[in-house]
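Morning F.,

Quick status update on the modeling queue. The single chain you submitted on Monday has been processed. Sequence for confirmation:
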Amino acid sequence: MKYIESKKGLFLLIILVVSAVAAASFAYYISDYYHMDSKATAALESTDVYNVTYTDNSIKFTPTQNRSDTGIIFYPGGKVQPEAYSVISSKLAVKGYTVIIVKMPFNLAFFGVNSADDVISKHPEINLWVIMGHSLGGVFASEYAVNHQDKIKGAVYLAAYPSKNASNATFKALSIRGSLDNLTTAQDISNNKNKFPANTVFITIPGGNHYNNGNYGPQTGDNNSTITREEQQNETVSYIIEFLKCL
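C-alpha cells below.
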C-alpha cells in the first residue's frame, strides 16, 4: 500500500512540475512581444481630423469630418502590440473611415476570434463593416467573416491567408502582401489561394515586407524592405481605399 501511495505521490509531483514549467513557458511566451515605435505613439494622439479613444478592449480612430458609414475592425498580428497599427489606422481615419483596433487576449487573435461581436454591437451608427487583419490576425479575421457573413461585407488580408475555406463566402476580399515578405511568402498565398473568397483581388507591393504593415520590428525571419515603411503603408492604404469604394 505504501508503495502504491508513493507512486501516486510521485505521479502528482511530476504533473505539478510539468504544469508549472508549461505555465512559466506560456507566461514568458506571451510577455515577449513586438512593441510599437515612436511614430505609432505619435499617431495615438487625437488631431483636428480624427479622435482616438481607448477602451479596455479596443483603440478607436474616429474621423471628425467627411465620416463614412463604413467601419473597419482590425485584428492585429500575433504577439504584436495593438498600438503598433495606429499609423496605418490613422491614415484610413484621415480618409473618413472609422477604424477600431481590437486588443487581443495575450496579443494573440486565436483567443479573441469573436471580438468583432462586441465592436459591432457597440457601434450601431456603422452601416457596413469590413474586417481586416495582419498575419495571424488575418487568419482569424477571415474565420470571423466566414462565420458572420450577415454582418461582414468585406475582408482585407494583410500578409495573411485563410486557414479555413472561405471560397464560397459572399463578402468581397482584398489580399495585400509585400514582395519581400518572408513570413507570408508568395508560395504561402499560392498554396492557399483556393481558400480565399472567389472574388479576392490579390495585390503585391514591390519591395515591401511583413512587419512594415505595422510600426514595430524588425521581425525575426522577415526580410528587409527596399521601400520605406511609410511608402509601403501609403500604397497599402491606397489599395484599401479603392477596395472600400467598391463595396
